[in-house]
Amino acid sequence: MQIVTCSSCGTQNRADESKLANDQARCGKCGATLKDAGTQPVIVTDANFQIQVLEESNRVPVLLDFWAPWCGPCRMIAPLLDQLATESQGRYRIAKLNVDENPRLAQQYQVASIPTILIFKNQRLIDRLNGALPKQAIAQRLDQAVAA
């Protein structure tokens, strides 16, 4: 069994690996198909930030994307972050936080414009990227975080 966070609603679910592999695992709250957490960005909220970002960053670096659905540049980099999540091979984790629904964390980390990307390692903020950057620039910063 594996704990997987629903990418639609953020609920944590216990899922069998064979069902995850066959896209048969469903969220107990919203019914959405669960994806392997290592290959999909994780939805982060004010409530689950401690577990999904800070505690997870003890294991691997976590990239947290501060975004909003109305933000054009945020929508431009979303597919790039999805690709990076698919390519991660467990070396890092990609997470997304909607600033409209979770203003406390945006304020805490002084996010003045979006998209803003923060990279955490060992429960500390180690890097900050602002604006819509190319995939290669984001990947390079993630590689530096993995190597550090």
Q: Characteristics of this structure?
A:
5 helices, SH3 type barrels, 5-stranded mixed beta sheet, 7 strands, 2 domains, alpha/beta, 148 residues, Glutaredoxin
Instruction: Classify the beta-strand content into a percent band.
Output: 15-25%
pLDDT averaged over residues: 89
String of helices and strands: EEHEHEHEHEEH
Helical fraction: 25-40%
The CATH topology of the largest domain comes to: Glutaredoxin
Which structural class is indicated by helix and strand composition?
A: alpha/beta
Main sheet attributes: strand count, strand direction, barrel closure: 5 strands, mixed
CATH architecture level-2 label of the largest domain:
3-Layer(aba) Sandwich
3D shape: globular
Going across the biggest sheet, name each strand in turn.
Answer: 3-5-4-6-7
Number of domains: 2
What is the CATH H-level superfamily of the largest domain? Glutaredoxin
